[in-house]
Write a structure and sequence with these properties.
The chain is mainly α. The chain has helices at 3-11, 14-37, 46-65, 85-107, 111-143, 151-171, 175-207. The chain is globular.
Amino acid sequence: MEFYNLLDKIVQHNENHAKWLNTLSFMENAGARKISACEHPTKVSLIQLKHATEEHRHAFYLKKQIGKIDSELCKTYESNELLASIATRQYLNSLDIKACKYLQQHFKLNKEGLKYAAYLFVTYAIEVRADELYPVYQDILTKTSSKIMVKSIILEEEGHLEEMINQLDEFSEDWKVHAEVILNIEKELHEQWINAISKDVLQLNYAE
């Protein structure tokens, strides 16, 4: 199912919409935790701290938005409160593992160096995706006159992407070549995730 049409269908159904918000919240929270896990024991930059803080805040903000639909829905990240829970939980981990494998082959890094490189390239790929996903979602929210808004997240994600590009420029002169590989890995995982969500939504609708 084409992404816009899928989101349009999700937003029309309160429980599915709540699960979608909860799924995005889970992903933002997982991203924040990944960023923190990539920190060097002592050499932690202000930008890295800022990113982790803002991703956590996005997770909180999205979770809070669920209350505008129904305060009794999606109080945790249990599997029955997420869309495509297995694919959702595997998405970022799979990207991280595959990116690390590729980066280690091409840069021959030590443990801490690999963590930092993974932070740069994986976060970059996720920010590129967020730069596409959130504006589509906001368009549908605006079209349906929803009380829910993600404009503040869009602005911050745009800033994150610019900051990641600046850091990657410092990391390697030919980072774009390697980033393209990571983006292709992410694209495949994203397609698997969206397909899983489509199936989940169709099953939920059929069950009613």
